[in-house]
Amino acid sequence: MNKLILGMISATLLAACSSTAPKAPSAPAASSSTSAGGDVGASATAAQIKAAEDAAKLQAAADAQKDAQHSVDAAATQSDAARLANRTVYFPTNVDTLQDADKDVVMAHGTTLGKLPQAKVRVDGYADERGSSEFNLALGQRRAKSTKQALILSGAKDAQISTSSYGEEKPVATGHDEAAWAQNRRAEINYVVGQ
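The structure assignment produced for this chain is given below.
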């Protein structure tokens, strides 16, 4: 029985060896024998091809990710440019706390100042015409300081920012109604040249 099993195994191996297609000549460094060593060389070549294909796929994915990040950066740059073009933030009546609607604008200026340590700004605070001159000057100063603090929290340095208050002086809207007053309750971020 053992002879029968050994005979069947031998016949199967011979049949398998004789039905294998001849291999293409390999590179000069590879062996041309058809022994097990020749199959290892072919496997190594196949593995190298697979590794090269995988590396190419990884590189393509990395390039695609880099392109996507560049697009995001370009969009962010355009978005920041729009925010930087806006240099005025507004406040409700008798309030000196920066409003959520204006935080992105102030953050964009703060980040820019953080990247440009030689740049300087002056934050001017204003109030509407209601209230005494002293009260409006103090309120304008608190608005300027609140905006300065937000700039610092966004990356600017204290030394880059000065503050001033004009109170109810220099209104942008001359009306005597809520629409005009809303435009006058503000802080302006003014970049200073030559200081």
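Interim note for the steering committee: The domain at 88-192 is CATH 3.30.1330.60 (60s Ribosomal Protein L30; Chain: A;). Residues 4-37, 68-73 have pLDDT under 50 and may be disordered.
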